[in-house]
Design a protein that fits this description.
The chain is an all-alpha fold. It has one domain. It has helices at 2-8, 16-23, 28-52, 58-78, 84-103, 108-115, 130-147, 152-163, 167-189, 197-217, 223-244. Helix 1 runs parallel beside helix 10, helix 4 (58-78) crosses helix 7 (130-147) and helix 8 (152-163) crosses helix 9.
Length: 252
């Protein structure tokens, strides 16, 4: 997971739930709660680096992140009304959606978003459409709370289009928002599921280390090839999760 985050600049958090569920053997709800902790801490270390580089827009992060935190906490509390199977199936749908956007040929502006190019400016900063920001923040936040994904592939475009954040700041600001959302979501799960703190600490340390290693390797591996390979992996995992839980499908 850490390697994926470092190599791709995002998207690795979507691997946390499948790893924790199928490789480690945690229950669906426990895996989602644990993934929020891991994603939050890993994103915090990455956000610190962007902060030092001056690539975090605190004003936008405060507005978007606060709303997203509320949505994430709400999603985590609402998770009690969903079965673990339903959460995994929703997660699989999110994986397939993410894979679709990764396979899709990016427009220049989205390429700038994805790879952090500095020559693709965001729109001029001005008054933010708070209504849209609230709606987007709540939607992304609730998705995070329900299925445990960081949502960076949804947050970054929203920050540029709605918040007027330049490409250089979009990734760093998104990471800070993910930290805020993950903290709120994890708090929402505390008391609902058992947290294995010792294992979680070890997994998080390895994830952070993998992130640093992936960042180094990214300088030597073509990003477009990695993107397609990762998208293919998401399709395989998404289909696998749906197959594993096919009994809950109404048409099977």
């Amino acid at each position: 997971m850490g390697l994926a985050l470092g190599l791709l600049g995002g998207g690795g958090s979507i691997l946390a739930v499948p790893i924790l569920t199928y490789a480690v053997g945690l229950g669906a709800k426990e895996a989602i709660a644990s993934s929020l902790f891991v994603v939050g801490v890993t994103s915090l270390f990455a956000a610190i680096g962007h902060w030092r580089a001056g690539s975090v827009n605190l004003r936008v992060a405060l507005v978007f992140g606060t709303v997203a935190m509320a949505g994430t906490y709400l999603g985590a509390r609402l998770a009690v009304f969903f079965s673990g199977t339903a959460q995994l199936m929703l997660f699989a749908a999110v994986m397939l959606l993410a894979a679709f956007f990764m396979f899709r040929k990016s427009r220049p502006v989205l390429e700038g978003l994805e790879y952090g190019r500095r020559d693709v400016p965001g729109k001029a900063a001005g008054s933010m459409p708070y209504g849209l920001i609230v709606a987007e923040g709540l939607a992304v936040g609730m998705l995070t709370g329900l299925v445990g994904v960081g949502g960076g592939f949804l947050i970054v475009p929203a920050l540029v289009v709605l918040g007027g954040v330049h490409m250089k700041e979009a990734v760093g600001t998104s990471l800070l928002v993910i930290v805020m959302k993950s903290a709120a979501g994890f708090a929402g799960y505390v008391g609902q599921v058992e947290i294995r703190w010792g294992f979680l600490a070890l997994f998080t340390v390895l994830s952070v280390a993998g992130g640093y290693a992936g960042t180094h390797l990214a300088r030597h591996i073509p990003q477009e090839a990695l993107k397609k390979l990762f998208a293919a992996f998401l399709v395989v995992m998404g289909v696998f999760i749906l197959y594993q839980n096919r009994g809950a499908l109404p048409f099977v």
